[in-house]
Amino acid sequence: MKSSNDQRIKSINFSMTLDEKLAQLNSYWIFELLTRGELDQGKFASKLKHGMGQITRLAGGSRLIP
Question: Which pTM value belongs to this model?
Answer without folding.
Answer: 0.66
